[in-house]
Design goal:
Elements: E1 3-6, E2 9-12, E3 28-30, E4 36-38, E5 46-51, H1 58-71, E6 77-83, H2 87-97, E7 103-106, H3 112-115, E8 132-136, E9 142-147, H4 157-162
Parallel strand pairs: 5-6, 6-7
Antiparallel strand pairs: 1-2, 3-4, 5-8, 8-9
Length: about 160
């Protein structure tokens, strides 16, 4: 269990992020076209998981825009933006915003939140994912994690980028 805050009020999550050096937990999400987005599809690539509550908030939308810009300059790297938003909402957002360099994945029918320890267990956003970043190397080993202490704050983009070098 991790303690974070939402508007300075304590919130707990169901577990912990994977530790550095651990293998990335297997996952399967739902893509914009309703096809599977799975960890096995990303084998041999560096992966950045941008995890957040919902595209319908300013901070979450900004994180997707920022990681989209970052992804444009990264080789052999896939940025996956993960939330509980339905695939249709993710597709609508990406289309309206011109988001083309990231993959979106909906966790609405998976155990992703529990497996990564990011499902908020209480508070007004209970059931949604907290804000976190997980970065792996090409072998699938976790090289960086950040569980953002205040859900309404943006992640440390520079730290995520530095972990890819």
């Amino acid at each position: 269990m991790t303690s974070v805050t939402f508007h300075s009020n304590p919130v707990t999550t169901v577990g912990e992020l994977p530790s550095q050096g651990a293998a990335l937990p297997a996952f399967e999400l739902v893509g914009q076209d309703l096809s599977a987005v799975s960890s096995s599809d990303l084998a041999g690539k560096r992966v950045v998981l941008n995890i957040f509550p919902s595209l319908d908030t300013g901070t979450c939308a900004m994180s997707v825009r920022t990681f989209n810009e970052l992804a444009a300059g990264l080789e052999n790297t896939v940025v996956v933006c993960v939330s509980e938003d339905l695939p249709f909402a993710q597709a609508r957002f990406c289309g309206a915003e011109g988001i083309e360099n990231v993959v979106t994945g909906s966790a609405f029918r998976s155990t992703f939140g529990q497996d990564f320890g990011v499902t908020m267990d209480d508070g007004p956003l209970a059931g949604l994912l907290s804000r976190a970043v997980v970065v792996t190397d090409e072998s699938g080993a976790v090289v960086h994690t950040e569980h953002v202490a205040e859900v309404t704050d943006e992640p440390d983009y520079e730290a995520a980028k530095a972990a890819l070098v």
